[in-house]
Amino acid sequence: MIPNIIAPYLQEHHGVLHVGDHSVMDLRERFGSNLFVFSESQITENVRHLQRAYQAHYPRFRIMYASKACSNLEILRHMVSLDCGIDANSGGELFKARHIGVNPERVVYNGTSKSVDEVTQGVLAGIRAFNVDSISELKRIGDVARRLGLTANVMPRVIPGVLGGTVAGFETGHVGSKFGMPFEDLPEVARVLREYPCLKFRGFHCHVGSQVVRTEAFSSAMRNVVAEMVRFGRETGFMADTMNMGGGLPIPLVPEGTMPAHRDGSPLPEDVQALMRGTISIPDVAAETAAAWRAAGADPADFDVFIEPGRSVIGTAGILLSTIEARKTRPGGVDWLLSDCGFNTMPETLWYDWYYHVVAGNRAREAADTAFRLGGPLCDTGDSQHDETGRGRLPNVRWLPKNTRIGDCLVVLGTGAYCIEQQSNYNGRPRAAAVIVRSNGVVEWITRRETYEDLIARDFGARRAP
Length: 466
Ligand SMILES: Cc1ncc(COP(=O)(O)O)c(C=O)c1O
Prior knowledge:
Keywords: Amino-acid biosynthesis, Decarboxylase, Lyase, Lysine biosynthesis, Pyridoxal phosphate. Residues 46-313 form the Orn/DAP/Arg decarboxylase 2 N-terminal domain. It holds the Pfam family Orn_Arg_deC_N. The protein is of the alpha/beta class and 466 residues long. It has two domains: 10-39 and 316-456, Lyase, Ornithine Decarboxylase, Chain A, domain 1 (Beta Barrel), CATH 2.40.37; 42-313, Alpha-Beta Barrel (TIM Barrel), CATH 3.20.20. The chain is 29% helix and 20% strand. It has helices spanning 24-31, 40-55, 73-81, 91-99, 116-125, 135-148, 186-195, 215-236, 270-277, 282-295, 311-314, 348-352, 452-456, and strands spanning 10-13, 16-19, 22-23, 35-39, 61-66, 85-88, 107-109, 129-132, 152-156, 199-201, 203-205, 242-244, 304-307, 318-328, 336-339, 358-360, 370-375, 398-400, 409-412, 433-437, 443-447. The strands form three sheets. Strands 4, 14, 15, 16, 17, 18, 19, 20 and 21 form a nine-stranded mixed β-sheet that branches. The chain has a nine-stranded parallel β-sheet with strand order 10-9-8-7-6-5-13-12-11. A three-stranded antiparallel β-sheet has the order 1-2-3. Helix 3 links the parallel strand 5 and strand 6. Helix 2 (40-55) runs parallel beside helix 10, helix 6 (135-148) runs parallel beside helix 7 and helix 8 (215-236) runs parallel beside helix 10 (282-295). It is globular, with a radius of gyration of 23 Å. It starts with 9 loop residues before the first strand and ends in a 10-residue tail after the last helix. The model has no long low-confidence stretch (mean pLDDT 95). The site of pyridoxal-5'-phosphate has 17 residues, from helix 11.
């Protein structure tokens, strides 16, 4: 029997996992493998949970959903129907937000390297804020807005000067990272704002990182940034009316009460376990950040306050169904299971040794008591979901029922965020399809499966480039 399994919408009936009334075996049969399955009711619950927690302390609060986590149009539409705005991170994400008709007043735009074209799109759309990553970008936005005779809303992204306790590649809140501006840049920001009256200063943006598991990181960030905002207003006269506290709230990567271990039972490093537990109280983060505001000399009630969650609203609302295609024995007693799902579908396994919990969806009552090595279909040794290369951040085996075999449905949990977006066609593999199980129980396609024709559709073959 599987313990409470990350997502409450996943239930076991007669030994098979179900999303609502739909067994994972039926879904895979009907829609194919690999298949992302989203639960609309879980998305709604995740959003409402955040809104309740933050609205208790921030009366003028809005979620700006970080569309980089999953920018499927139906997911975006659902977020907007729940009163969220959209955080775009590129011209493409801006285009998607505009395509579904989001009010530009509810769009913010992040990114370190916005091109003139992208800036122009944002200025023409009249978005709520450019989260401005550098002085040079501030000038670029000023130049574009001046040329167009329009005003652009700007919120400099400042470096909060904290570490979130996450994987190094997700730490964005320290001065060594490529993101944002140090507080020392603020006098120059004020000078550029004066030089370009077409820039409308709205406030500051900051972001600590992703899968940040320390409440203290969020509250320290706000203590630092709010103090600077107050000083900036006093010293320059540029008064903020908005604050964007960024994203980064974590999700549990493992079912409650379980912790994967190596084959010999030895534990993973404590910091890795903390990341996997991903337990943080969102009401506590909301309360403690608001307390940090007051300690720094500002009342959150006087500001429009945004957060930009991605993972914490969509991550647990999606699972990935795949298929065991081969099983092989090796000396040493740990069999290999090879599925049709590799780092082409879940790239963060490769880049960050990201842990996705896997269960055998059609053996949900069988004890996961047998060690396996678990690989995908790609031509790399690194295409495995256990520690195959000795880096030490993943368990060196995966635990599944003894009888797991070819044809079984492997369910990969917590794959709602940063998978669909990052999939690739590596090794000539068409990208996975996605469906959503609506709150009324109906299943609908939200992304069709790619075909082999799609794989060649953009190539010119031997034709000369135009
Ligand atoms: C600026 C910014 N905002 C929001 C997010 C979303 O973070 P998460 O999905 O961890 O909530 C990110 C992700 O890295 C980001 O860079």
